[in-house]
Design brief:
By secondary structure, the protein is α/β, with parallel strands linked by helices. The protein contains nine helices and twelve strands. Helix 1 runs parallel beside helix 7, helix 2 packs parallel to helix 3 and helix 7 runs antiparallel to helix 8.
Length: about 290
């Protein structure tokens, strides 16, 4: 029996709901991967519900868990690292140390950094120091980043990106900052620009050689469910680990997320991951990635 690839996932944890590791675990497992979950926070529920209880884990706590995994030889056997909500900027340094250790054993290991910082309408919702850490430290170690439109503008220094071409050009410029093994990839989600139809949402994927755009109908849910970016990043990474091409992996991840969002009942704060788990591996509607002119 073949042992499933291990993915070190360092994100938030909630007892109730689907965000962070609790949004990533099931997709990774259904895509044939074995997640190794390290939690940066433990809350009763995500902040979309309003009041919550729990705590942000200290860098020392996260490092202690990683030390235990190292002692078991787990880090050296991981084929990829996934990070999301940090909770504390100091946790980021522990993550980067783990990435370096994974790559020492697996030089081609992906590090997918979902630079969770904020969103349109909510602004920046992470602790001070995290945006600077992501810009100045994490980018240089990540091989894949998956910011939403708002977060990508933050990474670009607050520069408004009002056209697809402007976003693509900014991504091309940023690629040089990313780790180059494997080939760097920037995927900008929830892209809404002046030159796109108002009733559509786009995802832009940029490598050193090409750019692709995936467009879907815009689903007007109030409120939007939490955890969408966490699910997208996990599904994208799963398909990349399986060896799918960038346009195929991005297309599948977008299609899965669209299927889950379209099946979310109005007023629900979480995606129906378990009820609609079939859509993770084989989404019923496929949105193809369109190659953009150079």
């Amino acid at each position: 029996m073949t042992t499933p690839p291990l993915v070190l996932s360092i994100q938030s944890h909630v007892a109730y709901g689907h965000v962070g590791n609790d949004a990533a675990m099931l997709p990774l497992q259904l895509l044939g991967l074995e997640p190794v979950a390290v939690h940066t926070v433990q809350f009763s529920n995500h902040t979309g519900y309003g009041e919550f209880k729990g705590q942000v884990f200290t860098p020392a706590h996260v490092q202690d868990v990683l030390d235990g995994l190292r002692a078991r030889g787990v880090l050296a056997r991981c084929t990829a690292v996934l990070s999301g909500y940090l909770g504390d900027a100091g946790v980021g340094e522990a993550i980067l140390a783990a990435v370096q250790e994974v790559r020492a054993a697996q030089p081609a290991a992906h590090y997918l950094c979902d630079p969770v910082m904020g969103d349109v309408g909510r602004g920046v919702f992470v602790r001070p120091g995290i945006p600077d850490f992501l810009r100045k430290r994490a980018l240089s170690q990540a091989s894949v980043i998956t910011p939403n439109h708002y977060e990508f503008e933050l990474l670009c220094g607050g520069q408004p990106l009002t056209t697809v071409e402007a976003a693509a050009q900014a991504a091309r410029s940023m690629l040089a900052q990313l780790h180059h093994s494997p080939s760097p990839l920037i995927v900008v989600t929830s892209l809404r620009t002046d030159d796109l139809p108002a009733d559509q949402l786009a995802t832009l994927a940029v490598t050193a050689e090409r750019c692709w755009l995936v467009q879907t109908p815009y689903i007007d849910l109030h409120p939007l469910p939490n955890g969408m970016g966490d699910v997208f990043s996990a599904v994208l990474l799963g398909h990349l680990i399986q060896g799918r091409t960038v346009p195929d992996a991005v297309s599948r991840a977008v299609s899965t997320l669209y299927a889950l969002v379209s099946r979310t009942e109005s007023g629900q704060r979480d995606l129906p991951l378990v009820a609609c788990r079939d859509q993770i591996h084989q989404p019923s509607r496929r949105f193809e990635a369109r190659l953009l002119a150079a």
